[in-house]
Amino acid sequence: MTKEKVRRSFSIVALMVIGLLALIAPWVGVPESVGAFNPADIAWMLTASGLVLLMTPGLSFFYGGMVGRKSIISTMLQSFVALGVVSLLWFTVGFSLAFGDSLGGFIGDPRTFLMMKDVGLNSHERIGGGLPLLLFAAFQLKFAVITPALITGAFAERVRFWAYLVFMILFSIVIYAPLAHMTWHPDGLLFKLGILDFAGGTVVHISAGVAALAGAIFIGKRKNAENQGPPVNIPFVLLGTGLLWFGWFGFNAGSALAADGVAVQAFMNTHLASAAAMMTWIFLDVAYRGKVSALGACIGAVVGLVAITPAAGFVGLGPSLTIGFVSALVSRLALYFKNRSSVDDTLDVFPCHGVGGISGMLLTAVFATEGGLITGSPTLFIAHSLALVGILIFCFCASYTLFWITSLITPLRVNADEEEQGLDLSQHAESLSAN
Fold first, then answer.
1. Rounded Cα distance, 276 and 280, in Å
2. How many Å apart are CA 86 and CA 90, to the nearest integer?
């Protein structure tokens, strides 16, 4: 069977699945009546959910501007398509796996909220922070969407689009949902151990960064990786960074799940950490290259946003500056070593998101207002350090296995001719020159 026939057959099956969902969906997930809620909380969380959604298109610009001209559309679509794929997965079983009744503290019972059953407009007694459960599910959906999109930067310019879709589904079920459950569900293993992750430093950024490293190793280097030209569209990167920074206020401040003082604190911490990291990266560029780099400023800003994510609601303003500064130094050092290795992480997802998330997780345990190492108690820092080792092992081994499974289903990498042609034409029959 030819590749075209395989793709057409897969598309027909996918259409049948979506059609079946469309037929079944009207009979499940009927909302309950609205309970008594604070209108300000509702308004803020609706806004925050929209802000976090905006981060995924922002990421597509951020990544799209850093690749070669022949793969801009493909790279941007790999982020954007997660809005469709993960949303349907979240509706059917994803939310249930992440926040359903706990199975041993590792994952949710898929039957709890299957196809959004019982996810209505009343609050849940244990999850949701006093919000309508449907609003909590909508907010958490945006986190689930952007996480696999982050991974795509590691294998940009050489991955088959259909293989990426398969991996995205597997990653969301096998890695993202269990981590979200363990970290944020009241009965989750990491939650019970006291691990602090305010807005996804572990669940989103460490998991994506480590999966990106596994993918770069499994798929292998690009053809002529050492001779790739400079980023093709720095204005795209600047635009993407601005959208990410703006959306991150919903990401972090929204994780307070209320319009309250914690949200205000997280909002300001987010901004200060990003500003500190951006300026640190700029001056590192000047010291190393003698010039201010717009690309470096953008990367530094994002590293700061990543690092403050787990700590945003748990630390004060001063520590947020320190977290931004330290994370920029550590990620820049990781980037230095990565560039001298044989690993072709195209857009430096692991040095930025993985290492940034690791820095943030450890520094959260250092500066947390309650129980932090700086207050004289080592308990939280030890717990975070041990949990970090387990999370890194789980994410890498599980991701590498999922890439292997995906390769058994469909080839992961485009062939040499398709890579030379560029992914825009070879995967989508579209190109910038044709538009």
1. 6
2. 6
The pLDDT tens digits for 101-120 are: 999 999 999 999 999 988 98
- Strands (DSSP E) contained in 203-299 are none
Q: How many CB atoms lie within 10 A of CB 266?
A: 27
Contact 39, 399 (CB under 8 A): no
Task: Please write the tens of the pLDDT for every residue from 58-90.
Answer: 999 999 999 988 999 999 999 999 999 999 999
* Whole-angstrom distance, CA of residue 254 vs CA of residue 256: 5
* Distance from C-alpha of 18 to C-alpha of 11, rounded to nearest angstrom: 10
98 contacts 144 by C-beta, under 8 angstroms: yes
Q: Is the pTM of this model over 0.90?
A: yes
Q: Is residue 151 over pLDDT 50? A: yes
Note whether 142 and 53 are within 8 A (CB). yes
Residue 222: C-alpha distances to residues 153, 295, 413, 416 (Å): 13, 21, 10, 9
Asked if residues 231 and 295 have their Cβ atoms less than 8 Å apart, the reply is yes
**pLDDT tens string 172-231:** 999 999 999 999 999 999 999 999 999 999 999 999 999 999 999 999 998 876 666 677
Smallest CA-to-CA distance from 350 within 322, 392, 387 is with: 392
339-395 pLDDT, tens digit per residue, is 999 999 999 999 999 999 999 999 999 999 999 999 888 999 999 999 999 999 999
DSSP 201: I
Instruction: Check if the beta carbon of residue 203 is closer than 8 Å to that of residue 180.
Output: yes
Rounded to an integer, what distance in angstroms lies between the CA atom of residue 177 and that of residue 184? 10
Do 245 and 301 meet the contact criterion of CB atoms below 8 Å apart?
yes
Question: Which run of H or E residues covers position 331?
Answer: helix 317-339
Classify strands 107-108 and 102-103 as parallel, antiparallel or unpaired. antiparallel
Tokens standing for residue 39: 């209108």
Q: Does residue 435 register a pLDDT over 50?
A: no
Contact 252/199 with Cβ under 8 angstroms? yes
Phi/psi region, residue 357 (left: phi>0; alpha: psi -120 to 50; beta: rest), is alpha
- Burial (Cβ within 10 Å: 0-12, 13-18, ≥19) of residue 24: exposed
List, as one string, the DSSP characters of 169-188: HHHIIIIIHHHHHHHHSTT-
Q: Report yes or no: 383 and 194 within 8 Å, Cβ to Cβ.
A: yes
